C-alpha cells in the first residue's frame, strides 16, 4: 500500500522562476544604473564646456570694454569741435559753389529802386540756411524798405530785415540788411517797367562757383 500524502513540513515553491525573475530585475537595474551614470557624465561634460565658453565670452567682453574706454580717453573734445567746424565750412563751400550769382543779381536788378545803390552783397550758409547780407546806400530810408518788400514779393527772399542804419556826413544812409535767400523768384511782369538800377559798386563774399 502506497501513501500519496505530502509529508513535508512546508509547501513546495518553484525557486527557479523566482531566481530568474530576480536575475532579470538585477540586469535591468544594472542597465538603468549605467544609463544614469552615462547621462550624468554627459551632462557634466556639457556643463564644463558651457562654463569654459561663458568664461571666454566674459573675458572678450571685458577686453572690448577696456578697449572702448581707451579709445574714448584718446578722443580730444577740442579736436571733435574743430572737425565739426571744418565740416560746416566745407559744406558752406559746397553750397557756395552751387550758388547762382547771376540769379541773385537779376532779382536785385529788377526790384531795386532808382535812388537806392547796392554797395556790397555777400551770401553765407548758416545751419543749412542761405542768408544774404546786403549793404545799401540811399538818400532816404523809405526806398530801402520798399526794396526789401519787393524782394520778398518777387519770391526771392524771406524774413528781410534791416540790421543797422549808418548816417553819413552827406546825410545819406548806409543800411545793412539781411534775409533768407530762396532763389531768383518769379520773373517780373513784362507790362511793368523795371526800375532803373545803377550797377553795384562792389561785391564782397563772391566766389567763382556761381553762374
What does this entry show, briefly?
49% of the residues lie in helices and 19% in strands. The chain is an alpha+beta fold and 211 residues long.
Features:
disordered C terminus, 211 residues, alpha+beta, Gyrase A, domain 2, 4 strands, 49% helix, 19% strand
Q: How would you describe this protein?
A:
With 211 residues, the protein is an alpha+beta fold. Among the domains are: 14-72; 100-181, General secretion pathway protein M, EpsM (Gyrase A, domain 2). Helices cover 49% and strands 19% of the residues. The chain has four helices and four strands; from the N terminus they run H-H-H-E-E-H-E-E. A four-stranded antiparallel β-sheet has the order 1-2-4-3. Strand 3 (157-167) and strand 4 form a beta hairpin. Mean pLDDT is 76; it is low at 189-211.
By DSSP (H or I, 4+ residues per run), the number of helices equals: 4
Q: What is the chain-wise order of helices and strands?
A: HHHEEHEE
- Please give the order of strands in the largest beta sheet: 1-2-4-3
Largest sheet: 4 strands, antiparallel
Distance between the termini: 148 Å
SS strand fraction? 15-25%
Q: Pairing-aware structural class of the strands and helices?
A: alpha+beta
Overall number of strands: 4
CATH fold category name of the domain at 100-181: Gyrase A, domain 2
CATH superfamily of the domain at 100-181: General secretion pathway protein M, EpsM
Low-confidence stretches: 189-211
Q: What level of helicity do the residues show? A: 40-55%
The first-level CATH class of the domain at 100-181 is given as Alpha Beta
| Alpha-carbon Rg, integer | 49 Å
Mean pLDDT: 76
Overall 3D form: rod-shaped
CATH architecture of the domain at 100-181: 2-Layer Sandwich
Amino acid at each position: 500500500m502506497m501513501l500519496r500524502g505530502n509529508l513535508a513540513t512546508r509547501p513546495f515553491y518553484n525557486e527557479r522562476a523566482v531566481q530568474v525573475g530576480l536575475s532579470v530585475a538585477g540586469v535591468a537595474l544594472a542597465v538603468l544604473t549605467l544609463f544614469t551614470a552615462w547621462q550624468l557624465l554627459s551632462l557634466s561634460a556639457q556643463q564644463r564646456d558651457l562654463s569654459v565658453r561663458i568664461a571666454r565670452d566674459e573675458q572678450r567682453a571685458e577686453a572690448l570694454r577696456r578697449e572702448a574706454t581707451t579709445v574714448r580717453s584718446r578722443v580730444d573734445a577740442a579736436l571733435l569741435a574743430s572737425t565739426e567746424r571744418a565740416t560746416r565750412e566745407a559744406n558752406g563751400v559746397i553750397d557756395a559753389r552751387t550758388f547762382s550769382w547771376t540769379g541773385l543779381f537779376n532779382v536785385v536788378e529788377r526790384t531795386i529802386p532808382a535812388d537806392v545803390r547796392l554797395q556790397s552783397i555777400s551770401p553765407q550758409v548758416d545751419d543749412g540756411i542761405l542768408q544774404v547780407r546786403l549793404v545799401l546806400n540811399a538818400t532816404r530810408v523809405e526806398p530801402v524798405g520798399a526794396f526789401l518788400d519787393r524782394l520778398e514779393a518777387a519770391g526771392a527772399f524771406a524774413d528781410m530785415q534791416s540790421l543797422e542804419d549808418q548816417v553819413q556826413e552827406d546825410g545819406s544812409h548806409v543800411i545793412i540788411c539781411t534775409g533768407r535767400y530762396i532763389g531768383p523768384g518769379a520773373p517780373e511782369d513784362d507790362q511793368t517797367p523795371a526800375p532803373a538800377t545803377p550797377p553795384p559798386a562792389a561785391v564782397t563774399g563772391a566766389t567763382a562757383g556761381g553762374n
